[in-house]
Structure formats: C-alpha cells, structure tokens
Design brief:
The complex is a heterodimer of chains A (278) and B (433). With 278 residues, chain A is mainly alpha-helical. Chain A is built from 14 helices and no strands. Chain B has a 4-stranded antiparallel beta sheet, with no helix packed on it. In chain B, strands 7-8-9-10 form a 4-stranded antiparallel beta sheet, with no helix packed on it. The longest helix of chain B has 6 residues. The chains are: A mainly alpha (278), B mainly beta (433). Chain B: Keywords: Repeat, WD repeat.
Chain lengths: 278, 433
C-alpha cells in the first residue's frame, strides 16, 4: 500500500477488509448489514422507532437508523471481526492491537443493541447470561472446537445471532475437558451448514491457521504426543488456539476446567520450562 | 548516514537512544542487531568532520527463538535500548526484545602487551632453550578494538511482550513493562524480579486495557509512570506498597464529546511517555497529538500539540490498513523547551513550547544532502496550495518515523526512517535556549 486515497464528504460504500462473498440469505434469515435490511423488514420485526427513544435521543437515533450510517457501522464491525482473526501465524499477535479492536467491536455492539439492530436469540435454557450481556472478546476469538451446533430454534444462522448464541451456550453447558473438546473439532464444523458465510470463514480460518507443525501436533496420528502435551500443559485447547490470537488463548475461560489455570500462562510457562529442561 | 546494504526487513531500525553524555548513539533493528555510533571529537585539522557520528561497534544482541509451548516465534527485534549511567571506563546498556532483557558491557582495548618471556608474538610457547634473558612485557598501542560482551541475561520475566525498559536513578535497579505487568529488577540479579504492577484481570474476558509504555522518574527513584491503551497515565510510588496497582496519581483528559467516534479510544491510546529532564513534566504521544502534562495537575494536559490533525477524517482508512495502531515515540530536547515526534511520509515535527511555533521536516535522501539545511515542509488539506506542499492524499503511509532521539545537551537529533538513520545537527543554534 503506497498511498492512502482521500475520502470525500459522503460516507464511502461499505468495503470490509477481505470481505467474504455476500451472504446468501438463508431461508429464515434476517440480516442487518449489507443488503440485509430488506429481509429484516420483510420479516416484520420491528426495530425501535426513533420516537420511542428519549426525546433528546430522537435525532441521534434517527441518524443512526439512516441506512448509510448503519451500513458503514456494519462494515466496520465486519472489518474488526476479520482483523481479530487474521493474526500473524508464526508470531504472537500484538495484544494491544487486539484489545483495541475488541473494544471497538464492543462499542459497535453496544450501539447496535441500543438502537435495536442487534438481535439476540432467546436463551435456550434457563440460567443463561442476561440478554443484554455483550458478546465478549473471547467469543469472537474462540475457535470452532468450542462451538456447539446451534439448537433447532436458531436455524436462521444470522451472523449476529450465532455470535450471541455462542455467548449464551457455554454457560449452559457442563465444562468439557480440553482433551475431549479437541476431539470434537470436526463435528461442529460439519453441522455448521446453515451458518452465514462470514462467520463460517472466520472459524475455518481459525481452524486451519497456524504453522503446520502445530496441526501435526494435535492430529490423530500424533495422539500419544498429544496426550503427553495435555498432561504437561493441561490446557491443550488454549495452546492450540493461542498460536493464532493471544486474546483467544488468554480468554478461553469458559470451556476448560478451572484447575488447568489456562488463564495464567506465566506459571504454566515456568512449569513447562522446568519440565522440558530436565 | 544511510545504510549501504540492500534494504531488507532485518535492517529496519526499531529503537534509537543517545547515552547520557550524547557521545554514543545506539540503534537496534528488527534483525536483533545493535549498532553503536560514536561522536568524533571536533578537531581543527578536519573541520568538516566536526562532531559527526561514526560506527563504533556492531553486535548481535538477540537471536530469534521459538516458544515450543505456544508454537510461536519470539522475534529478535530490539524493542528498546537504555544506557546505564557510566560508572567506569566501560559503557553498559540494556537491550530487550519481546521477552528477554540483556545487559551488555562495551569496553575499549587500544593497547596490548608485547614481549612475553614464555610466549612468542603469535602466542605459541617458546622453546625454552632459546630464552637467554628476561624481559618485562610492555604495553604497546594497537588499533582500537571495541569489545562487547553480554554480562547479564534477564529471562523468563514476562509472559507478554515487553514494550519498555527504564533504568532507575539509583543506578541499581531497572524496570521492564509488558502489556499487563511491570517488573522491577536488580541489575546484578537475573534469576528473580519483583512484580510491581499487574493489571491482568482475573478473567481475561474482562481485559479492556493494556500497558503501553513506562518510565522511571529521572530524579525520584521511587516514582514511575505508566501509560495505557485508554489514554491514561498512572504515576506510582514504590514506597506506598509492594504492588503498585493503586496509582498515586491518575492523569486523564476528559473526552471531547464532539469528537467522539468509534475510533476515539484507539487514537487516545498513548504510544509513548517521557519525563522531562527537569522531572516536572511528562510528554505523551497518542495517534494525533503530543501532550505535555504537569505532574501537579491530573485533570488535563497543560499543552496539546496537533501532529497531523488532517488524518482525523481518514481514521477509517487508517484503521483498515492498520496504520492507526502505529506507535510513535516522542522526545524532549535537553532544556525541555522543544518537543519532537515523528509522522508519516518521513516527516517529523518539532514544537517549541515557548514560541508556540512548530515545524515539519523531512528525513529523506532526496531532500537532504549532507550539510544542507532542512527545508520546512507543509501538508495542505485543500484550499490554497503552495508549490512545495504535499497533499494529504499523496502522503506515503509506509514511510513512518516512529523512533526519534534528541541529544541530552545539544541540538542534535537522530531520526530512524525505516532502515535509514539520519542525524541532524543544528550548528548555528548549538546552545540551548
């Protein structure tokens, strides 16, 4: 990239970085974002009207409801999600950058929640995280091995719905050991047929990225080595994903058992260092 | 002094630092090398080489490593170099990559003993039967040899990437800061360090802020400051508690609601913080501005200077191409009257705090021949355009000046432009005002 093109006064058309092909509208899809607004209205789902907001917010909400602003905002959200995934393969990514991008995503979600463009699926079981809980960074960065196939009610595969589904799913399930979760790597992927492409691509990118050596490490062929690794680290799941995204590795708190202390890589590093050197 | 090698990524300069007298200038690069320049003494015999910097020593400081646990490479790129105050004939410096800090000792050898009784000139043992008399070995001058040796390796102190190191005014300790923690080390002890700041949340899902830079106060050995990705500065007193999670002072400017956007937080992230030489002020750099803070006033900076405000309308593009995450450094001059920082298109900016005048200069081979006077540059943002103005749209964002350094006493600056080092001297105004 040699020069930066100037921007005119009008907001540019949405142009996410490495945009996935436009999502084909799944049968019962309701999509916000590029080209999705028509289907959204067609479903008869109401967004919050400008006049239902507080008086002072009316104008602002109207502005936010304007198609060009929400398109641009959606484009920014897509771009940010892709940025979080497209991390350096060999070198640990910049944590500061990841945190700033994740905060940007949170801000967008907050705003979209406020003006009702962020649709959250009804919780599948009781005791779920509250509906207004924002999708955490961890969810955005989590690899597919921790994705459960969506329940029957969420078949519309809306990108935002899927993400929010993920946010509620982990708290509803019994914690799985990292070892068993790795063996489940393939199954979630196969059942993800109806998922919107962008999120699909994101998870597949997560699955496939990383140096080939890591893939070999955790493949079926090397299962004895893999088991040793599990014993040593106790956080195989995190270790696998950490090559891609530091945030992902450090934030995989929901699934693995607490005793594996995957949150404290420092201690783990130290322990393994001792083991490896002896 | 442009590099004459073929440009490669390993040659990209990643840090620049003068020592305390300004006699030596150290640079670190992406390939893990350190190059030290020494200022030639001014001599009447060669008036044209008055006080110019020549290469003094080059050594490989860090090598690439592989973290087998995480299957990640540890880059050998030198993130920071800090000189220790000179205590004897040798010079010492600390250099660090993402994970490991090393203490290097630099010594000169310009004499060697000659006339051994038992060994000949090549060091082979003499045939004793040929030795008929005793002689006293004599020190004879030799070509200057600069020897660099690693004296300490401070490893395994950091889980995250080290962004700063700072030597304490007590000359016995130093600190190293990564994204979430700051450690205090004793220069003589490598197998342990004290954690003095830890902002890692119990649940990593709650992580929203990281440490971006950190520095000891130049005079008070108990005080240090660290900056965050949310634009705040925290001044900490090590006497107050062992773990300085509670700041003594929090410096934060309230957000301007009229300028609020999705990028507000990112552009408020502080990329560098530097105490003034006096110790009374702090200088911070965020994406669009440099700010001067008074240690006695936490509510807002006392001065704010716009580095390249014309980029404010282009933040989305800069976010897309990741330029918005570029970490620019900033520097004080010796008398704390002028501040300097880099920008894009190989431009760098200087702000005079007294006259409130500022200037934009360019570091490039095309626009500066040796001993030529730098011509001020201007970026035009539409409207009237003068002949040599650069338009915002033709700025080259790959040419960024992230690292700059100012001589501690004189008007000499070192500018790192990708893989080239420029040293500019102000002969006319050598004295500080």
């Amino acid at each position: 990239m040699a020069t930066l093109c100037g921007r005119g006064a009008a907001p540019p058309p949405p142009r996410p970085l490495q945009a996935p092909p436009p999502r084909p509208a799944p049968p019962s899809a309701a999509g916000a974002g590029a080209g999705g607004q028509d289907t959204m209205f067609a479903r008869g789902l109401k967004r919050k009207c400008a006049d239902s907001e507080e008086d002072g917010e009316g104008a602002l909400a109207a502005f936010r409801a304007a198609p060009s602003y929400s398109l641009q905002r959606q484009s920014l959200l897509d771009m940010s999600l892709v940025k979080l995934q497209l991390c350096h393969m060999l070198v640990e990514p910049n944590l500061c950058r990841s945190v700033l991008i994740a905060n940007t995503v949170r801000q967008i979600q907050e705003e979209m929640t406020q003006d009702g463009t962020w649709r959250v699926m009804a919780p599948q079981t009781a005791g779920q995280a509250p509906l207004d809980r924002l999708v955490s960074t961890e969810i955005l960065c989590r690899s597919a091995r921790e994705v459960e196939p969506p329940g029957p009610g969420s078949g519309d595969g809306h990108a935002l719905d899927l993400v929010s589904e993920l946010s509620t799913a982990p708290s509803a399930q019994a914690p799985r050991s990292p070892q068993s979760s790795v063996w489940e790597v393939d199954s979630p992927r196969e059942s993800r047929g109806g998922f919107p492409k962008s999120l699909d691509q994101i998870f597949e990118t997560l699955e496939n990225k990383g140096p080939g050596s890591v893939e070999e490490l955790f493949s079926d062929v090397d299962s004895p080595y893999y088991n040793l690794d599990t014993v040593l680290t106790g956080m195989v799941g995190s270790a696998k994903s950490s090559h891609g995204d530091a945030l992902e590795a450090l934030a995989s708190a929901a699934a693995p058992p607490p005793s594996s202390s995957c949150k404290d890589l420092g201690e783990l590093d130290h322990v393994v260092e001792i083991l490896v050197e002896t | 002094m442009p590099s004459h090698r073929m440009p490669s990524e390993a040659d990209i300069i990643s840090t620049v630092e003068f020592n305390h007298t300004g006699e030596l200038l150290a640079t670190g690069d992406k390939g893990g090398r350190v190059v030290i320049f020494q200022r030639e003494p001014e001599s009447k015999n060669a008036p044209h080489s008055q006080g110019e910097y020549d290469v003094y020593s080059t050594f490989q400081s860090h090598e690439p490593e592989f973290d087998y646990l995480k299957s990640l490479e540890i880059e050998e790129k030198i993130n920071k170099i800090k000189w220790l105050p000179q205590q004897n004939a040798a010079h010492s410096l600390l250099s660090t990559n993402d994970k490991t800090i090393k203490l290097w000792k630099i010594t000169e050898r310009d004499k060697r003993p000659e006339g051994y009784n038992l060994k000949d000139e090549e060091g082979k043992l003499k045939d004793l039967s040929t030795v008929t008399s005793l002689q006293v070995p004599v020190l004879k001058p030799m070509d200057l040899m600069v020897e660099v040796s690693p004296r300490r390796v401070f490893a395994n102190g950091h889980t995250y990437h080290i962004n700063s190191i700072s030597v304490n005014s007590d000359c016995e300790t130093y600190m190293s800061a990564d994204d979430l923690r700051i450690n205090l080390w004793h220069l003589a002890i490598t197998d342990r360090s004290f954690n003095i700041v830890d902002i890692k949340p119990a649940n990593m899902e709650d992580l929203t802020e990281v440490i971006t830079a950190s520095e000891f106060h130049p005079h008070h050995c108990n005080l240090f400051v660290y900056s965050s990705s949310k634009g705040s500065l925290r001044l900490c007193d090590m006497r107050a508690a062992a773990l300085c999670d509670k700041h003594s002072k929090l410096f934060e400017e309230p957000e301007d609601p009229s300028n609020r956007s999705f990028f507000s937080e990112i552009i408020s992230s502080v990329s560098d913080v530097k105490f003034s030489h006096s110790g009374r002020y702090m200088l911070t750099r965020d994406y669009l501005t440099v700010k001067v803070w008074d240690l006695n006033m936490e509510a807002r900076p006392i001065e704010t200077y716009q580095v390249h405000d014309y980029l404010r309308s282009k933040l989305c593009s800069l976010y897309e191409n990741d330029c918005i995450f570029d970490k620019f450094e900033c520097a004080w001059n010796g008398s704390d009257s002028v501040i300097m920082t880099g920008a894009y298109n190989n431009f760098f900016r200087m702000f005079d705090r007294n006259t409130k005048r500022d200037v934009t200069l360019e570091a490039s081979r095309e626009s500066s021949k040796p001993r030529a006077v730098l011509k001020p540059r201007r970026v035009c943002v539409g409207g009237k355009r003068r002949r040599d103005d650069i338009s915002v749209d033709s700025l080259d964002f790959t040419k960024k000046i992230l690292h700059t350094a100012w001589h501690p006493a004189e008007n000499i600056i070192a500018i790192a432009a990708t893989n080239n080092l420029y040293i500019f001297q102000d002969k006319v105004n050598s004295e500080m005002h």
